[in-house]
Specification:
735 residues; alpha/beta; Rossmann fold; 8-stranded mixed sheet; 5-stranded parallel sheet; 21 strands
Length: 735
């Protein structure tokens, strides 16, 4: 009898306990359909978490928490209507759970504050929601999308990608995300090559991605538009190991499966490739209990049972939903403590009770507990602080390849490393390789060797000219003028060395080359011109019976005049428009095997007015060359024994004029024909200098050698130059 009475008493006591529990209602706003139907996977998580809460008598003593949920369809208009209907339903909701989609959370949060309703979202990541002036009662347990942008940029930097392209759906949440990441990219010297925005069909913009050879692409769109993007990419064969996609974390599980495109799921996946997502870091296994007495393993097991072991859209936000429910409970528990001595309880909350509403808001901001996902707390904007991670699509599923720790460093996974089809990260664009174009070394070496031999020959002739300058054979050909010719030849040979040196590192060579060439030509041709002029003057004097020979001084004056005019032009050129070294890019050569573009580049000398000054110099040389040619032609039949090289001088004039005429085309050859320009130009210079000195000095060497062999005594053939020289002039065919 006693046992039966005790049992009845316990039943009555238990019934009394249940009777005193007061019901609190939270309004669940879940997207069960629409652009993102993550509510399908979120609802079971909320039910499991609320089950834990109501079973734990210490969670919220004296209260039972109930959730009435509605389908927002991820539509702001629907969400706004649900809020209005529920506020007028006669039931009082103390807090809001949701919404899932950022656009819905925005419009609901703006309105909910007027009912003093605190809102906790499990998945809305729009940066707009961090504005506490607009949304003072809004909190979320997922990171602000802007935080993930910093990680996206760090991810790009890690792989040394400096060129990216963005494409996003015309939605505010995606537009703000892309705008924010572009601002970060600018500060990190990463160039946004193009930015594409689409509303319905992305076909045109996907084609532009291919046309622009986009490699690293940041995409932001809902699931239905993601299928369209990659379906279009598949159709135009825009895929492969060279392309990397960074996609948003809001895509549904098995997002590629759908009926809004004419592509199969496999075709869509083949275009997406091994894409990446950046998201909050959640663990999938853990045996340590959180502050609420639940382990991660326990929650995941219960969640799988609730979903009948199916993989539902939104299941990735299951742990965040668990956190959101416990944030609500923790905030209400703290508020209950604040109301303990006021005579009010949580059940006294009304939509017009700003006092309790403010308490709930402030206590939500102060929430700080250890959850199955880690530490849960909020910053001043109501955003939670979480670690982030990088996932890559591998072998039909997303796997964690890295997470980003508190030190802002990547911790890469050893068990599931990043997978690259070609074994290494792709390049962000065709690599532009600058290939300096330089002279062929064999050509330059050959020319330098020949020029060096020419210098040795000129020095030999110069030594001969100086040593035997008082010998009649040398004396009568003006050895001082001959020395000027040889000096001009030597400078010409030195020019061959200078012309082959690159001006990229020594731009001063542009000026040095010009001066060397003008000085060499002035000495060489000026001396030949002066000798020919003297021969012409003697011919005129002969006809007037005046046979006095012009002195060397007059010849040097003529050389000086030619050199003076040339140097005046060059100095004026250097002052008004100095030559400088400039890089020239030649026609690109694509190297598809190495994924690069080779750009041949060469450095050449130029100036602002080089065409005008080149024209003036060429014109002056042409004038004196024509005059010299006419003089040589006029005196072609004249032989003056006392001037024993008159015939050879004429031949030298012909030689220089002909080679100069050929050399005029060299400056006007295309700059990319570097070897041809150098070989032809320097070849003509070497031939001209060598032929000139050989024509003048070889006959003298032979004549002197013959005389020395026939007379045997060099001193007998020295002659003191008379004060006046009488001439013996012979015309070809006359005496």
């Amino acid at each position: 009898m006693f046992a039966r009475r005790s049992f009845v008493f316990l039943l009555l006591l238990q019934g009394q306990t249940f009777a005193v529990l007061k019901n609190l209602y939270i309004l669940g706003m879940l997207p069960m359909e629409g652009p993102w139907n993550g509510g399908v996977g979120v609802l079971p998580a909320a039910k499991v978490a609320l089950g834990y809460v109501n079973k734990n008598m210490d969670a919220l003593p004296g209260y039972r928490v109930n959730m009435i949920w509605n389908n927002t369809k991820c539509n702001p208009g629907v969400g706004s209507k649900i809020l209005g209907d529920m506020m007028c339903s006669g039931k009082t909701f103390i807090m809001l759970l949701g919404a899932g989609c950022s656009p819905v959370s925005e419009i609901v949060a703006e309105a909910a504050q007027f009912w003093n309703l605190v809102q906790v979202s499990y998945s809305s990541s729009s940066p707009v929601l961090s504005d506490k002036h607009r949304f003072p009662y809004f909190f979320r347990v997922v990171a602000n999308q802007h935080k993930h942008n910093y990680l996206r940029v760090a991810f790009l930097q890690y792989f040394n990608w400096t060129k990216v392209t963005t494409i996003h759906q015309s939605e505010q949440v995606f537009g703000l995300m892309v705008e924010h990441i572009e601002n970060i990219l600018i500060t990190k010297n990463i160039k946004v090559m193009n930015k594409f925005v689409f509303t319905n069909s992305p076909r045109v913009f996907v084609q532009k991605l291919k046309d622009d050879d986009a490699r690293i692409i940041i995409g932001a769109f809902y699931t239905d538009k993601a299928r369209k993007v990659f379906c279009e990419a598949f159709k135009i064969r825009f895929s492969g190991p060279k392309i990397v996609w960074l996609l948003p974390a809001n895509l549904e599980h098995n997002w590629w499966k759908g009926n809004n495109t004419d592509c199969t799921g496999n075709e869509i996946l083949s275009a997406a490739g091994n894409y990446f997502i950046i998201t909050d870091y959640f663990k999938y296994f853990g045996t340590e209990k959180d502050d609420n007495g639940i382990t991660l393993q326990q929650f995941m097991n219960d969640y799988k049972k609730m979903t009948h072991y199916q993989t539902l859209t939104g299941n990735y936000h299951a742990q965040a939903t668990y956190d959101a429910v416990w944030v609500i409970v923790q905030a209400l528990k703290a508020t209950m403590a604040d109301l303990q001595n006021t005579g009010f309880g949580l059940e006294d909350f009304t939509y017009t009770n700003r006092y309790i509403g403010e308490l709930i808001k402030n206590n939500t901001l102060r929430v700080n507990f250890n959850s199955i996902t880690g530490r849960v707390f909020f910053d001043k904007n109501g955003d939670t602080i979480r670690l982030s991670m990088v996932k890559q699509f591998q072998e039909g599923k997303l796997v964690e390849v890295a997470h980003y720790d508190q030190r802002n460093e990547f911790i890469w996974s050893d068990s599931t490393p990043v997978f690259w089809i070609n074994g290494e990260p792709p390049k962000d664009s065709l690599e532009m390789v600058m290939d300096p174009v330089s002279l062929l070394k064999p050509l330059y070496a050959t020319m330098c060797v020949i020029a060096a031999l020419g210098i040795l020959l000129a020095l030999s002739f110069l030594t001969f000219n100086i040593k035997f300058r008082n010998n009649r054979i040398i004396k009568m050909s003006s050895p001082n003028i001959n020395s000027a010719i040889l000096l001009g030849c030597i400078i010409s040979y030195v020019f061959v060395f200078i012309q082959g040196i690159e001006t990229r590192e020594m731009p001063i060579l542009c000026q040095v080359r010009l001066y060397f060439f003008i000085i060499a030509f002035s000495l060489l041709f000026g001396a030949l011109f002066a000798k020919t002029w003297r021969l012409y003057i003697l011919l005129i004097k002969m006809r007037k019976l005046n046979k006095q020979v012009s002195k060397d001084t007059h010849l040097f004056i003529e050389i000086g005049l030619i050199a003076g005019v040339n140097m005046s032009i060059v100095v004026l050129w250097s002052i008004i428009s100095p030559s400088y070294s400039k890089e020239m890019k030649l026609q690109n050569m694509v190297d598809p095997d190495n994924d690069r573009v080779v750009i041949p580049t060469l450095w050449h000398c130029t100036s602002k007015h080089d065409k005008y000054f080149t024209g003036i110099l060429v014109s002056f040389q042409a004038i004196i060359s024509l005059i010299g040619l006419c003089l040589a032609f006029t005196t072609r039949k004249v032989t003056i024994p006392e001037l024993n090289d008159s015939k050879e001088i004429g031949l030298c004039i012909y030689n220089v004029v002909v080679l100069s005429a050929l050399g005029i085309v060299v400056p006007f050859l295309p700059e990319n024909h570097l070897n041809i320009k150098y070989g032809l130009g320097c070849g003509l210079i070497i031939i001209g200098a060598t032929v000139t000195q050989c024509l003048i000095f070889i006959p003298k060497v032979q004549a002197l050698d013959t005389l020395m062999q026939s007379k045997g005594d060099e001193t007998e053939y020295r002659a003191i130059p008379p004060t006046k020289t009488s001439l013996s002039v012979k015309m070809n065919g006359a005496s």
